[in-house]
Amino acid sequence: MRRKDRRIDDLALIEEIIGQARVCRLALHDLPAPYIVPMSFGYRDRTLYFHAARDGHKINLIKQNPQAGFDISIDLGDVDGGDQGCEWSVRYRSVTGHGHIVVVENVAEKRAALDRIMGQYAEGEFFYPDEMVARTLIFKLNVESMTGKAGNV
Description:
Distance between the termini: 17 Å
Structural class: alpha+beta
Low-confidence stretches: none
Shape: globular
CATH class: Mainly Beta
Helix content: 10-25%
Radius of gyration: 17 Å
Strand content: 35-45%
Number of strands: 8
Mean pLDDT: 90
Number of helices: 4
CATH topology: Pnp Oxidase, Chain A
């Protein structure tokens, strides 16, 4: 990272950013260019959790190459530069990284992953019908590397 003054390495601060975010952009290997998809997610202990339909382009790419990148960011507003165009900017905090995707098959682990995903957006306890859990694909990204960044905060 060129701007070392914006880099965040402290895991607690990185996890704080992740906890405040609403969307995780998942980057998968595709040709001729990477395939990037915004997704709902959950997080715990250096693991990102996602849910999806059992088939589709995203799932095919994961089967071909389970290595993936991700970006999670929080938009904190604009920096008003007045009539000086080059003085305008954005205040943000972000986490970028990569890891290995694994499909979750165990029913208890799937339910726990769904709780993590729901916990990203709401408080409380949630019920998941057995048939819904059975048909929903849950996958997790085991984070191998991640770095935070903060700009204009």
